[in-house]
Amino acid sequence: MKNLILAIESSCDDSSIAIINKESLECVFHTKISQENEHSPYGGVVPELAARLHSEALPKILQKCQPYFDRLCAIAVTNEPGLSVSLVGGVAMAKMLAISLNLPLIAINHLKGHIYSMFLDKKANFNMGVLLVSGGHTMVLFIDEQGEITELARTNDDSFGESFDKVAKMMGLGYPGGVIIENLAKQCQESDIEFSIPLLHSKDLAYSFSGLKNQVRLEILKEELTPQRQSKIAFAFQKAAIAHIMNKLEKIFKKYSFKRFGIVGGASANLSLRSQIEHLCQNHQCELLLAPLEFCSDNALMIARAACEAYERKDFVDIQADLISPKVKHLQGKL
Ligand code: KG4
Ligand code: ZN
User: CA-based, 20 to 30 A from 302: which of 17, 25, 41, 334?
Assistant: First the structure.
C-alpha cells in the first residue's frame, strides 16, 4: 500500500530526512546529520558551508530511503523560512524525487513543522497557546480548534535562541550557544552580576533581546574573562532572558485563559525555561504540551507530520513554482 510520506528538512544547519506512515503516524525512518561541529569555529552558521554540507549529507541519507520508494504517496519539503542557500538543497532534491517517482509535492513552513512536533505520533488537538522559541524566531501564538493561527507576541529584534548563540560567540565559546550557555549557567549557583530584564515595565506584548545582548557585551569588556566569570555571565544572562519570556507570558496567560499550552522550537529544550513554564501552567490549571527533547531542534519528522495534514487537504504545490521564501517572519493561516 502506498501510504508513506518522505519529508526533507534543510532550512538551516541540519540535513534531515524522515518517512512517516500517514495513517498510523508511525515514523518508519528518520536520520539527521547536524553541521554544528563544522560551524562552531565561526560562532554561527556560515551559509556557503551549510549549502555545501547539505549537498553532501542529503544524498547520503536519501540512499538509505530507497527500500521505501515503492510505498511513497508524496514528497514533502521545508520551503520557508530559513537560509535560502540551505532551503535550495532540500527543495531541489524534493522536486527531483517528485518528478522521478511521479508523486505530488507538499511544501511545509518550518515553523508549522515545529508546532506539529508536539503531535508527532498522535492526532493534533489545538485550541491552545504556543511559545515558539528557535534560532530565527520567538513568538507566542494562539491556535484555535480549527488550527487557525493568531500571533499574540513576537520579538522586535533577535530571537531567544539567537541571543544564546550571540552570547556564546562573544565569549568565544562556539556554536550553537543554547546548550553551551545552559551548561555553563548550571555550574553557577549565584552570580554577583545582574542584567536588567528587557521591557519589564512596558505594557506591550513584545519581546526584545538585543539590549540584553548589549548588556552582556559591556559586562564582558569590564575585566578579564576567567572561566568563573564566564559561568557567572551565562547564569545572569539566562536568568534575565528567561525572566523576560516569563514576564510577557504571565501577562498573556492573564489575558487569554488557555486550557492548554505548548512550547516548541530548538530553544524549548532549555530545562530552566521548561520548568518555569511548567510552574506557570500549574498556577493557571493549564495542561502543558512539550515536544520530545530529541525533536525540539530541527528535524524532518516534524515536517513529515505536518505533511500528513496537508496530504489530507490535497494541499499540493506545482513542481514548476519557485517555492522558496527565506524571509517569512509572520506565521499566519491554518496549520
Ligand atoms: O529550531 P532550531 O533547531 O533551529 C531554528 O529553527 O532556528 O533552534 C536552534 C536554536 C539555536 O539558536 C540554539 O542555540 C537554541 O535553539 N537552543 C537553545 C537550547 N538548545 C538549543 N537555547 C537555549 N537553551 C537551550 N538548551
Ligand atoms: Zn527550527
Answer: 41
